[in-house]
Amino acid sequence: MAIIEPIREDVTHPGHIKKYSAPLRLWHWINAIVISGSLLTVLINATITDRRPVTALVKDELKHAGAVVTDDQAGSVAHALGDSVWSIHTYFGYGLAVLLLFRLVLEFFQLADQKFIGKIKGAYRQFQTIKKERELARHELAVKSIYAVFYLLLIIMAVTGLFLAFEDLLAPFKSIRHSVKDVHGFCMYLIIAFIVVHIAGVFLAERKDDGKGIVSDMINGGKS
Questions:
Q1: Cα–Cα distance between 70 and 63 in angstroms, integer?
Q2: CA–CA distance, 23 with 19 (Å, rounded to integer)
Q3: Alpha-carbon gap, residue 123 to 140, rounded angstroms
Q4: Which residue of 39, 160, 178, 217 pairs with 184 in a disulfide if CB–CB is 3.0 to 4.6 A?
């Protein structure tokens, strides 16, 4: 059993399908949209609105229109375009921070058997006590550990992102801005890696009889 494949069966209740509450499902899909939007803005700024090609494009287009601008003037236009995209990226970041807070609060109101921490504890107990289900429990622990790292990355991304967004108000800590930006960027690549692994795991699981329906479970809540 591949370590990246999520399990449809509820390890703590053998024979039953995992249940997902409506708030958790809503969080999952909105979070996917927000993260995708955030990554898309980074991609746009690294390609379409990259300063050098945009500067050259602005100069050429204005030249053909009969106007002459300097490199600095064209660069200012390119910089403004990039800033506009980064503004959108910042709003996505605010959304991510709000969603993360919502997820942390939701954990306290979830049913006991649907709480993330509860699932980890349940899988660990199954691993310790039921030998015939040990392989399934070990796999569930591995998958949940990967998700736990993902949540940690989201927290780091949100904290570092908010630091960068409000750096003017955090002037005493300006000396660590570069380090914070590096951490923020590095976590972005790790999150991209998680997304790739997550999608691959779901795809592989959906190809198996005991895993078919994982995507629909995250839509309808895990109906039997």
A1: 11
A2: 12
A3: 6
A4: 160
